[in-house]
Design goal:
Two copies of one chain form a homodimer. The first copy, chain A, has helices at residues 9-13, 18-28, 47-59, 61-68, 77-91, 107-119, 134-142, 159-171, 197-209, 270-284, 289-300, 304-330, 362-370, 402-420; strands spanning 33-34, 102-105, 125-130, 146-153, 156-157, 178-183, 217-221, 247-252, 264-267, 337-338, 346-350, 372-373, 375-376, 384-385, 392-396. With 421 residues, chain A is of the alpha/beta class. Chain A folds into two domains: 9-45 and 306-420, Alpha-Beta Complex (Aspartate Aminotransferase, domain 1), CATH 3.90.1150; 50-300, Type I PLP-dependent aspartate aminotransferase-like (Major domain) (Aspartate Aminotransferase, domain 2). At the A-B interface, helix 1, helix 3, helix 4, helix 6 and helix 7 of A face helix 1, helix 3, helix 4, helix 6 and helix 7 of B.
Chain lengths: 421, 421
């Protein structure tokens, strides 16, 4: 082939996620204690539950054949019905959503992709907490859309800051470019923050109020909702959306059950059902029917709740191990702070202002030398809006044992001490 | 929400596939004999094989846990290794492809989507047989790319016609817009045509020779390759690509094993590995690990080949039933012609020139009234290039029993007779 190949704009836009560099490093040195990857714990995967559900599913040849055949683009109605009922119960609304508002996807990530592709033209803006989920920002980059940071604290996105940011965007003549507000309202990635009910109400109200140039949707990424270790569940931002035309929910069984089965879902306002299904139909005609039937069987047989309960216990121990280790090794250090999340998989560290925790900084090098890997917080900040902070770190406690977590934090403390003397 | 919602350009481009109208009609009347859908036979799904493979997979807790965990974006290496060996054996090349050239996707459709998205900018051209796979044209439409028809006959795309079409495109100053030639070289959808080796050689050679403005890739969609009922297998067009930079292969277990498990794959030239994996990583981080492990286990335990052998027998009977019925009921009609495919799921009918077989035509209405559904051939023609034919019909023999196939063809013959008197 003579002329040189140039990948399409879209493929180029999707390239170069910093996280893949990190993963590559983690794989190079298996002795490294990775507190970086947001993987789930390999020790607590539901092999027993899957065995039971699978036996039951494959027992009846007719049921098995149905699971092995093509399904529909929005997904297996039996599973969608159970999801609807589960959400109805969790959120305590008067009326459940309609079944056709629920679409099954390849994890919540595909839902986020389909929804964002339905909403956004190149150059459009999505307002995100600052910091926010870095993979979602990569996805926006791939769509040539812009992530715009809004100041946030231990309770997530600050409504007053959102209002300010929208006012500034309006003053710049770009309000009609704002198409969505992206929230991770439960134990968010990376900061572990959970939005209290009043903030959920305020953000949804604000999305509606600012829907002038274009409708502004709220995308509520609820991937971690089930992983709560202390305190009570809070209803989804969906319940603040009386007219049902503003809030999109993304959910998944990847964190609470199995990422290998990869079943996620979305709850869509009516006007998004068709665009999302059109796009999905073009890509894969609907998610694999087989794993949808499997998850439905898991729920139906009552195998899900006990598994999640066990998972919560195990992750709670690990979170405690990480917080205890932080108290022990990090609290003696000046200007090192962290929050105590009520769930999820992450602890977010703030280091002294002078520290650059980035991939090219001294701390990252020293940490690797000590034998511990973290995610530099700076990759979790949107490119526009609220400025990035170089002195933040995301620690994940999902994968390692309690002992390794303690050891990892101790190593990290040594590296931090070395760069702050 | 006050302002009206407008879905993105991309979502609008993905909308309105004619096939969904057809499906809706089929579902409205369950008594209708559908010779339309390209579904696989529900009677021959591999529930026994899946039961055995699943039991073996879930027996060992460590193996089960690996299958339930996240995998990598290109897919499970165990499965990719088996696919490599299988292709190596089937195509009899000196050297197998490298493992990293193989990417696992959600059916072959996702591979076609990722590859096309990597290659194409809006306005770019893909040359296709005329007629060709309508879902692929829908996918191109969704990417705002252009399907351009090349004359084809019972042996698929005609190389001389391809050369002519490229010369005409060059004369129009658009050669740099041509990015790919899409082939379904085995028992194609819709025409049942299989390209002989000399045509494969000629098309790949032509793609290379015409790669002047931009590289022109050959996308070889081999979804039906395993479904051969008579004659010998022909090597993939991949073997004609000595430098390995031109031909992309799309394969799938959906037709030969189970569409519900939805495991497909691609073989990529080296320069496409990164763009395809970048795009895939952005959508779903890689296909579900669980079903990939399942398919690997199926292959490893030797459960695949016997299943496909049974499938071939069953589909061969159905093809014979359809051809026999055509001989009996259609040959008495003037100017009704069809080919005898060596495999696949489709028989392509040519009706008298005066007949409009489209959704709004008389024949379609009469056929519905008689109780039989077909795919109007006109939807299978690219919008540009070789002009569409209104008097063609795609019949599928995959789903119905031999009796229903005969009955369906008889009904269709009555409808055709009624519009041609």
């Amino acid at each position: 082939m003579n002329p040189e190949f140039h990948a399409s704009r879209r493929a180029c836009a999707a390239a170069g996620q910093p996280i893949s560099q990190l993963m590559a490093r983690a794989l190079e040195n298996p002795a490294l204690i990775s507190l970086a990857a947001g993987f789930v714990d390999g020790q607590t995967l539901p092999d027993d539950a899957v065995r039971q559900a699978m036996t039951s599913l494959l027992q009846d040849s007719r049921v098995a054949a149905a699971a092995l055949q093509y399904g529909s683009t929005p997904g297996y109605h039996g599973l969608r019905r159970m999801l609807r009922d589960q959400m109805h119960q969790a959120d305590g609304q008067d009326r459940p959503v309609d079944l056709d508002q629920i679409v099954i996807t390849a994890g919540s990530n595909q839902l986020l992709h389909l929804v964002s592709e339905s909403l956004l033209e190149p150059g459009d803006i999505v307002l995100c907490a600052s910091p926010t989920y870095l993979v979602y920002m990569g996805l926006l980059l791939g769509l040539e859309a812009r992530a715009f940071g809004v100041a946030s604290d231990a309770q997530g996105m600050i409504p007053e800051a959102l209002d300010d940011q929208l006012r500034r965007i309006q003053a710049a003549g770009e309000l009609q470019r704002v198409k969505a507000i992206y929230l991770v309202p439960y134990f968010d990635n990376p900061a572990g923050a959970t939005m209290p009910m009043d903030r959920r109400v305020a953000v949804v109200e604000m999305a509606k109020r600012w829907s002038r140039g274009s409708p502004i949707h709220v995308i509520s990424d609820e991937a971690y909702r089930e992983l709560r270790y202390t305190g009570d569940d809070i209803p989804s931002p969906r319940v603040c959306d009386d007219s049902g035309d503003t809030v999109i929910v993304a959910g998944t069984f990847s964190k609470s059950f199995s990422p290998g089965i990869r079943v996620g879902w979305g709850v869509l306002p009516r006007h998004l059902i068709q665009p999302v299904c059109d796009l999905k139909g073009n890509v894969d005609f609907g998610s694999p029917n087989f794993t949808q039937h499997l998850m439905a069987r898991v729920l139906q047989m009552g195998l899900y709740e006990p598994h999640v309960a066990g998972l919560r216990e195990s992750y709670h121990r690990k979170l405690t191990a990480m917080l205890d280790a932080a108290d022990e090794f990090l609290s003696p250090l000046d200007d090192v702070r962290w929050e105590r999340p009520a769930g999820g998989l992450y602890v977010w560290l703030e280091l002294p202002d002078t520290v650059d925790a980035g991939l090219d900084g001294l701390l990252f090098q020293l940490s690797i030398r000590e034998g511990v890997l973290y995610v530099p917080g700076q990759y979790c900040y949107p490119e526009e809006g609220e400025p990035p902070q170089k002195n933040r770190i995301r620690l994940s406690f999902g994968v390692q044992s309690c002992e390794k977590i303690r050891e990892g934090v101790e190593k990290l403390a040594r590296a931090i001490a070395a760069v702050t003397v």
